[in-house]
Write a structure and sequence with these properties.
- The protein is mainly α.
- It has 2 domains: about 10-40, no CATH class; about 45-118, Winged helix-like DNA-binding domain superfamily/Winged helix DNA-binding domain (Arc Repressor Mutant, subunit A).
- The protein has 6 helices and 3 strands, in the order H-H-H-E-H-H-E-E-H.
- Strands 1-3-2 form a 3-stranded antiparallel β-sheet.
- A hairpin with a 2-residue loop joins strand 2 and strand 3 (about 100-105).
- Helix 3 crosses helix 5 (about 75-85).
- The chain is elongated.
- The protein starts with 10 loop residues before the first helix and ends with a helix.
- About 15% of the residues are buried.
- Pfam families: HTH_5.
- This is DNA-binding transcriptional ArsR family regulator.
- InterPro entries: ArsR-like_HTH, HTH_ArsR_DNA-bd_dom, Metal_resp_trans_reg, WH-like_DNA-bd_sf, WH_DNA-bd_sf.
Length: about 120
């Protein structure tokens, strides 16, 4: 059985591919939405930040709990938390003198994204 040979698309076919892609992935139509999606994936693009997200998938935590769990400096964890907030991966709220971090509830299937097991 012969394999079909891969063919390079011409200009019109490339334009049609882009149109179909934008229909399927609507965020590609707006530069602001593209940048927001890029910030989300950038936020997940670091091992420490993935650990933080995994911890927050288990329960909400304050900075001191994350520092203790990760064995990192407070300034390092704070830096990673800021990137996660910018990427809209996590949310923060104040409770007295503590800032409590939680996953953004609008993100569906975070366990699946993280490869969690039951």
């Amino acid at each position: 059985m012969a394999m079909n040979e891969w063919m390079i698309l011409n200009k019109e076919e490339c334009e049609e591919l882009l149109k179909e892609t934008q229909e399927k992935f609507s965020y590609l139509k707006e530069e602001e939405e593209i940048n927001a999606k890029a910030a989300f994936f950038k936020a997940l693009g670091d091992g420490t930040r993935l650990k933080i997200v995994s911890l927050l998938a288990m329960r909400e935590c304050c900075l001191c709990e994350l520092v203790e769990a990760l064995g990192s400096k407070s300034s390092t964890v704070t830096h990673h938390l800021k990137l996660l907030e910018r990427g809209d991966v996590i949310q923060a709220r104040r409770e007295g003198k503590f800032t409590i971090y939680t996953l953004n509830p609008s993100i569906k299937n975070m366990d699946l994204l993280l490869g969690g097991e039951d």
